[in-house]
Amino acid sequence: MSNTATTDTAVEAGTPVLLAVSYLRVSTREQAERGGTEEGFSIPAQREANSRKADELGARVVREFIDAGESARSADRDGLQDMLAFIAATRVTFCIVHKLDRLARNRADDVKIHEALLAAGVTLVSATESIDQTPSGMLVHGIMSSIAEFYSRNLATEVTKGLSQKVAQGGTPMRAPIGYLNVRRTDDQGREVRTVKVDPERAPLIAWAFEQYAKGETSVTALLRDLTARGLVSVPSPKRPSKPLGKNALYRVLTNPYYAGVIRYKGALHPGAHEPIVEPALFDQVQSLLKAHNAHATRHVQHAHHLKGLLHCGTCGSRMLLDFATNPRGTTYAYFVCSGRASKRTACTRRAVPVQVAERLVEDSYANITISEDDYRHLAAEVDAAFGQRGARRDQEFADLTANRTRLEAESDKLLAAHFADAIDLPTLKRHQDRIRAGLADIEHRLSEHDEQHAGGRAFLHDSLRLLTDAHHAYAHSDDGARRLANQAFYTRLEVTEDEQLHPHLAEPFATIVRETTRGKEAKREHSTSSDVACSRKTTWVGRTGLEPVTLGLKVPCSTS
Fold it and tell me: How far apart are CA 102 and CA 113, in angstroms?
């Protein structure tokens, strides 16, 4: 249960105040009623100690939560759960307890409660123990954390020890695979025994699957199709309905020695006490067939090349595949072939491209995108100027975000004051505070990224420009791994045409940089050409006449009268 503190709970508008909650607990109903009073002796004493601690912290206790006659061995206490819900919906700074054992004695619950308090931004304070942010308080926290870790690790060790003992006795330490069912029964002494039995519905289908595959006339894919048609589905659970198996799940079934009466646990095999579904000889035969099939599949070696997967056919757009051809003399040649033509998915008649030709085309493409040092300095200056103009808008956005944060914090304080004045209930407060908390988190995220995006964007563009100044030389002198990374970074698509020309599609920001550089060069060229033929109004055109024919490639001069 929870009680509202009788002291001043109204939050004065505009006055910053540290808020705190107080948690009180006694273990037994006898303690709660001792002395003939409603609260006994212990709870008032705890309340007084917590109040003094709040005064020392300069905080105001705005809500008090009491568990009377509740053991700390469990976290499922009304007062505790109400307190955790309250601090999740409000902006409380401190949670004050008389002693730590008032909050929890079970280490697992202690860790969970601490995590809930930390998630809400609340500091746990003991009225009689030093667990604050002082060095000694941090030491106590460290010791408690070590104890909690020891508790967790020791519990895991005990569980592992129990599972190992169960395996040694032939028991199943995990969930039984499909074809078996986990069951619970009570022995003659009234103890619960967990064991495994054969699933009468699915076990015959599992046995049939091993028998069919052992014949060597089917594949895992075909076997899965037949099993699904026969109705094999997984065992339903409260969270997952039954569904057909996947190919990987069936492969795990065919390679699981559990069906032959053997348990695989931590990489070792142990004889099981459960009833096997297949004979060991049949299981071994299936394993031999699976290994032979895998060995056959791995004979098709995957050849690596730094252009593999990056080239596309310029005729039909299909991806180009790496292929090899061997002549009668035993010499092997590497080619890139159109996958659309090879698979007959398209009517493409694209010829194969020798690997050496494709490599030369891609390397030459870097010469076309390399920019000069002058271009670099010019574009870098434009980038700096653009970011400078953006700075004014960025400052305004920063101011807007800051103002919005102040508005949301003020709204949160008003809602909290209204709740303390019983104007709104806790669910309504929590709904609005969740909205405000989400808004504040978004604002903080955008503010933290503000400068990072500005500086990071400027540095990214400068780095991209610098890469283009040395692109061709760097690519020509790189190894295959670096070339592959460069192609993936600079290009989104590389198309090879029928006449063995490369049409590259640049990725951003390189596409924009090269486009602007080309546009600037063309503008300079047009300006230079127009200035060469510009003459005053008094000029007269003088043609190239005489013994020699007109030379069209020469610039036509003009004379003035």
Answer: 12
Tokens representing 37 are 């009073």
| Residue 387 and residue 458 in contact, taking contact as beta carbons nearer than 8 Å | yes
What is the C-alpha to C-alpha distance for residues 307 and 319, in angstroms, rounded to an integer? 11
CATH number of the domain at 59, please: 3.40.50.1390
Collapsed DSSP state (helix, strand, coil) of residue 368? helix
Nearest-angstrom CA–CA distance, 483 and 477: 9
- Contact in structure between 536 and 543 (CB atoms under 8 Å): no
* Residue 100 CA, distance from chain mean position: 37
- What is the Cα–Cα distance from 424 to 434, expressed in whole angstroms? 15
Last residue of a domain, which of 410, 442, 469? 469
Please check whether residue 528 lies inside any domain of the structure: no
Note whether 213 and 289 are within 8 A (CB). Answer: yes
Tokens encoding 310:
């990056």
pLDDT, residue 103, reads 75
> What is the span of the domain harbouring residue 315?
301-358+470-507
Which letter does DSSP use for residue 12 in this model? P
Tens-digit pLDDT profile for residues 128-182? 877 766 666 666 655 655 665 566 566 667 666 777 777 777 778 788 899 999 8
The one-character DSSP state at 261 is T
Same domain, 186 and 206: yes
Amino acid at 169: Q
- Name the phi and psi angles at 266, rounded to 5: 55, 45
C-alpha dihedral over 188, 194, 197, 203, to 10 degrees? 170
pLDDT at 16: 64
Could you tell me if 277 and 328 lie in one domain? Answer: no
Q: pLDDT tens digits for 239-276?
A: 788 889 999 999 999 999 999 988 887 778 888 888 99
293 and 309 both lie in a single domain: no
Low-confidence ranges of the chain (pLDDT < 50): 1-14, 32, 34-40, 72, 298-301, 530-561
Token pair 């929590």: residue? 430
Instruction: Answer yes or no: do 104 and 209 share one domain.
Output: no
- CB under 8 Å to 201, separation ≥6 — which residues? none
3-state SS, residue 379: helix
Q: Is residue 551 part of a domain?
A: no
Report d(CA 73, CA 103) in Å as an integer: 9
My answer on whether 492 and 432 are in the same domain is: no
Q: Which residues of 258-296 are buried (b: 16+ CB within 10 A; e: fewer)?
A: bbbbbbebeeeebebebebbbeeebbebbeeeeeeeeee
Cα gap 434→411, rounded to integer Å: 12
Say if residue 380 is in the same domain as residue 461. Answer: yes
| Torsions phi, psi for 25 (to 5 deg) | -155, 140
Cis peptide leading into 509, omega within 30 of 0? yes
Structure tokens at 437: 């908390």
User: How does DSSP classify residue 498?
Assistant: T
Q: What is the pLDDT of residue 74?
A: 58
